[in-house]
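Exam revision sheet. Question 4 asks you to relate a sequence to its structure. Input first:
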Amino acid sequence: MDVKDFDKIIIGIDPGTNVMGYGVLGIKGKKPMLIALGIIKLSKFESHYLRLRRIYDRVLGLVEQYLPDEMAIEAPFFGKNVQSMLKLGRAQGVAMAAALSRDIPIVEYEPRKIKMAITGNGGASKEQVREMLRRILSIPLSQLDELELDATDGLAAALCHYYESSKPAIAAGPKSWKDFIAKNPDKVKM
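Answer key, structure tokens:
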């Protein structure tokens, strides 16, 4: 299928400073389908700044190639190493800047929320997430074997966003009994 055949396209990003994963999901009707899946290897760049430039260039290239309507990105989790957290935050920010340069809305999801949306378990392993994605999206096992788990983490962010954005909106109920009576006088006997 061509990207123009989908009703919506979501790109998911799993930010990283050594490997960044991405997945592109196409939505046709109410059916999510895999468009692309991959990683951006960054370890060959010695300078952190060159890695950031590579992230920006590659994410911008993906945005221009697949024309996503929205981006879902995994929010950094809180770790003990402050330097690692800063580098990860920069990587995430640069990926977001690439999407924002093309006016693509971005939504962040905590890793536990993504895992919960895909597997039903917020503490699921990366392997469990990959297997559930394979089953949900009917991805041949051979297509996933050679890829690192960061690629399926990016795809999981995209699928989580599809699930979250597809939930029906629930109207807010009354804030108090007084509010209920004011809005529903026909339901109160005097």
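Marking note for examiners. Residues 48-66 form the longest helix (19 residues).
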